Amino acid sequence: MKSKFTGALIGSAVGDALGAPVEGYSMKKVSSVYGKDWKMISGRYTDDTEMMIGVAESLIENKGFNGEDMATRFIENYNPKRGYGPGSKEALRRISEGESWKEASKKLFGGMGSYGNGAAMRIAPVGIFYYDDIDRLRETAYKSSHITHSHELGKEGAALQAFSIALAMQGRVKKEGMLLELKEFVENEVYKEKIRKIEMFFEKVAEVDKKEVISELGSGEEAFNSVPTAIYSFIRADSFKDAVVYAVSLGGDTDTIGAMTGAISGAYYGEEAIPKEWVERLEGGKKGKRYIRWLGEELYHIKLQLMQRDGW
Ligand code: R7I
Ligand code: MG
Ligand code: MG
């Protein structure tokens, strides 16, 4: 179990760092950069991992969710060079200027709130910490999303990603079984439809063309155009490496789809399954790979304590 906790967080960071140098590239351009080797280029992570670290730090410090504290972590960790989305940036600016974390995100995108994938990309700590408690998982996914993403589709994408990680932690189901559980879990029709499309992909005899995956599931910055793509990338592959390589190879929002695929795959296969060369290359420093592993270990230990307290 410990290896699944650390695997989800390191896996997310590795996927982010692998996708980062080619974010926004076409499928063809990604292939011209990575060729057949898929060597990690710089190992530097982006906003996806920086925010994921904030989620983990806050869950650890509070042994659960605390909105004000989590927003503060996001603001303290914020480094403008990590490539934040405009919506998240504005929400954090508003909160740092004194607005409540409950109100700031509602003002974005003409009062609709953001449906970007910024809440889903950072959700791994919630998926591992609440892997055995669907109701708490859903509630914490929605609340932690709300700090920057108040649109229903932004929150639902984060909850779906968290639940996919939880199922991967349990390791009970993959393919059809996993899709069935996801379809029951998800409340929004937009996501139900995407999961139906994934089911149709698996019903086909031949491997689905990547162009069709991109046009049907998406490869963009919207939560509904990237979370289902990450889930598909995980399910169709037989290893951590294949899953993340496939996710990044599609082009588009590669760091984020890579991060989300890496989180689910790391939770499923465990940290040992992540290619050593990629982890070695992942950035070090104060909040680098060792710190990210430590966050996973801490979440594991706190989870154990809470389970013992509750008489498991
Ligand atoms: O979701 P967010 O934090 O962005 C995350 C992305 C990831 O790819 C990261 O790697 C980083 O590069 O940024 O930031 P947002 O700005 O909230 O959402 C991302 C984008 O989704 C926006 O810039 C918009 O293009 C789009 N979007 C919307 N468009 C119209 N109406 C999000 N919400 C809306 C909306 O309500
Ligand atoms: Mg990013
Ligand atoms: Mg991205």
3D structure, described in words:
Helix 1 packs parallel to helix 14 (240-249), helix 3 (47-62) crosses helix 4 (67-77) and helix 4 crosses helix 5 (86-96). The protein has 312 residues and is mostly helical. The chain has helices at 2-19, 27-34, 47-62, 67-77, 86-96, 108-111, 124-129, 134-146, 152-170, 175-185, 189-203, 210-217, 227-236, 240-249, 254-269, 276-281, 289-309. It is 65% helix and 0% strand. The chain is globular. The chain contains 17 helices and no strands. Residues 23, 253, 255-256 line the site of one magnesium ion.
Could you outline the blueprint of secondary structure elements for this entry?
Elements: H1 2-19, H2 27-34, H3 47-62, H4 67-77, H5 86-96, H6 108-111, H7 124-129, H8 134-146, H9 152-170, H10 175-185, H11 189-203, H12 210-217, H13 227-236, H14 240-249, H15 254-269, H16 276-281, H17 289-309
Helix pairs in contact: 1-14, 1-15, 1-17, 3-4, 3-17, 4-5, 8-9, 9-15, 10-11, 13-14, 13-15, 14-15
Inosine diphosphate ribose (R7I) binds next to helix 3, helix 5 and helix 15.
Task: Quickly list its features.
312 residues; mainly alpha; 65% helix; 0% strand; globular; binds inosine diphosphate ribose; binds magnesium ion
